[in-house]
């Protein structure tokens, strides 16, 4: 039986979404450290994927394609956070949205420290570290998700590890 491309079959896309959504939400949570924001990001990424489904040529590449969309959106969120943090610091403003209290209660002290340290890293370093060590992806998959070379990923990961060690959140 011939495989039906994702772009031409709503049931195939629906099945892909049902299978990958939990993984994508876990990835987004690890990148953003915020449950609600992660869920919103994944929904937006799936909407984007639906609109761009015609660009997918190989159904076997669909999970990596979805992961790449989530990673790109998460890196944009991390960049916006960093810009807002810098601006609010310069202007003496408080952050518009405080993290939910339940999140602070659920996280262990180490995870909170790691999250703060990751947020202070450049977005590509934070994404590379998260995908490699928190998601456990091999370098080749991290490179594919970030759309860069394996060597570039290694540099981002090494720089992130060095910075996190300097901040005392890694041994």
Summarize this structure briefly.
With 171 residues, the chain is mainly alpha-helical.
Rg over CA atoms:
17 Å
Give me the CATH fold name of the largest domain.
Rna Polymerase Sigma Factor, Chain: A
User: Kindly state the mean pLDDT as a whole number?
Assistant: 81
Q: What is the CA–CA distance across the termini?
A: 52 Å
Low-pLDDT sequence parts: 1-7
Characterise this structure.
This protein is mainly α and 171 residues long. The protein has two domains: 99 residues, RNA polymerase sigma factor, region 2, helix turn helix motif (Rna Polymerase Sigma Factor, Chain: A); 65 residues, Winged helix-like DNA-binding domain superfamily/Winged helix DNA-binding domain (Arc Repressor Mutant, subunit A, Orthogonal Bundle). Helix content is 74%, strand content 0%. It is built from eight helices and no strands. Helix 1 packs antiparallel against helix 2. The N terminus is likely disordered.
Helix and strand topology:
Layout: H1 10-32, H2 35-52, H3 62-91, H4 101-106, H5 109-120, H6 123-134, H7 139-146, H8 150-166
């Amino acid at each position: 039986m011939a495989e039906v491309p994702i772009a031409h079959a709503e049931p195939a896309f629906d099945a892909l979404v049902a299978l990958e959504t939990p993984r994508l939400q876990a990835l987004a949570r690890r990148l953003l450290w915020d449950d609600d924001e992660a869920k919103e990001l994944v929904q937006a990424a799936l909407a984007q994927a639906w609109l761009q489904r015609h660009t997918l040529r190989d159904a076997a590449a669909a999970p990596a394609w979805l992961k790449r969309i989530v990673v790109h959106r998460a890196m944009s969120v991390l960049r916006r956070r960093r810009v807002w943090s810098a601006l609010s610091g310069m202007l003496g403003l408080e952050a518009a949205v405080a993290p939910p209290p339940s999140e602070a209660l659920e996280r262990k002290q180490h995870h909170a420290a790691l999250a703060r340290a990751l947020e202070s890293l450049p977005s590509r370093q934070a994404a590379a570290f998260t995908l490699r060590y928190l998601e456990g992806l091999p370098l080749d998959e991290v490179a594919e998700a970030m759309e860069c070379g394996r060597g570039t990923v290694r540099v981002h990961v090494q720089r992130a590890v060095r910075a996190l060690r300097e901040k005392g959140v890694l041994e």
